[in-house]
Design a protein that fits this description.
Rossmann fold, Chemotaxis Receptor Methyltransferase Cher, domain 1, binds S-adenosylmethionine, globular, 3-stranded antiparallel β-sheet, 291 residues, 11 helices, single chain, 43% helix, 2 domains, alpha/beta
């Protein structure tokens, strides 16, 4: 069946209502202010195409109503808007070298030092999307804790601004094909296979859920946590941000890390020229400098 193309957009070839110039400028300013994403003039058609679905879901006839919603109740729609214009693509053990560094080096050292009862170990997955990243961290952490054999108060905080992504993370149920990066041993160990109506699905083990706390958080807004974190993962998130937004974010991350604390970025992200508080110690792996 052909898509229904309204008259306004028939020329541009985009299905749905037209995005007027004023509305696009409002959306650009809004997205920059709340999501740190600088949309160029060339992105107009893309934004329109992505938001048409959102308008349909909200049963709105035009972008004027959508802009009005953002003006009157920005918080209610911000996550959905950000999800629509960015991507939630993620995978278990994505950029596996980061997990190897964590398992074979950092966790061993931290657990060696955290000897006293009640010592805390905290990892933050900032921009956790649908949960594959924090649950991969949880597998590595659970295995390290088992090997160390002592009680350590260990937790992974997983945050994102997309409500849909967070709901999926909270559910922790994935089609088996999504487990591509997970070894057979870990699949057996850390996932429960669905049966009957759940055939083809895998559910994360309760032990992993126990280690992961999932919460909504916009990285550009206030953060309720005080830190410190032993490590921060913020991978494939800042790619959408402009330089001043990245700079501010790295400064804020530095405040929550101890000297030597690692910050993991995504494969195409860099801190080059943006912060002198960190030094590069591996592939897109940084460490907070000692003063
Ligand atoms: C491409 S995914 C990366 C997921 C995971 N970190 C990984 O590397 O596989 C980017 C995530 O960042 C989130 N995100 C983008 N801007 C954000 C912001 N300002 N605050 C919090 N999360 C944000 C998006 O909602 C999305 O889920």
């Amino acid at each position: 069946m052909n898509a229904v193309v309204s008259h306004d957009n028939a020329v541009a070839g985009v299905a749905g209502p037209a995005l007027g110039d004023g509305e696009f400028q409002f959306l650009r300013a809004f997205v920059y202010r709340h999501c740190g994403i600088a949309l160029s003039e060339q992105k107009r058609q893309l934004v329109q195409g992505r938001l048409v679905r959102r308008l349909r879901a909200l049963r709105m006839k035009g972008f004027d109503a959508y802009c009005e919603l953002l003006r009157t109740d920005p918080d209610s729609e911000l996550g959905e808007l950000a999800s629509a214009i960015s991507t939630n693509v993620t995978a278990f053990f994505r950029e596996v070298h980061h997990f190897e560094a964590l398992a074979n080096d950092m966790l061993l050292r931290w657990l060696e030092h955290k000897r006293r009862e009640g010592d805390r170990l905290r990892i933050w997955s900032a921009g956790c999307s649908t949960g594959e990243e924090p649950y991969s961290l949880a597998m590595v952490l659970a295995e390290a804790l088992e090997r160390c054999g002592r009680h350590v108060d260990a937790k992974i905080l997983a945050t994102d601004l997309s409500p849909a992504a967070l709901a999926a993370a909270q559910k922790g149920v994935y089609p088996v094909e999504r487990l591509e990066g997970v070894s057979d041993e870990r699949r057996r160990r850390w996932f429960l296979r669905g049966e009957g109506d759940y055939e083809g699905l895998a559910c994360v083990h309760p032990r992993l859920r126990e280690l992961v706390t999932i919460a909504p958080l916009n990285l550009l807004h206030e953060w309720p946590m005080q830190g410190p974190f032993d490590a921060i993962f913020c991978r494939n998130v800042v790619i959408y941000f402009d330089q001043p937004t990245k700079q501010k974010l790295f400064t804020r991350f530095a405040r929550l890390l101890p000297a030597g604390g690692p910050l993991f970025l995504g494969h195409s992200e860099s801190m080059h020229g943006l912060s002198d508080e960190f030094e590069l110690i591996g592939r897109t792996l940084y460490r907070k400098k000692t003063a």
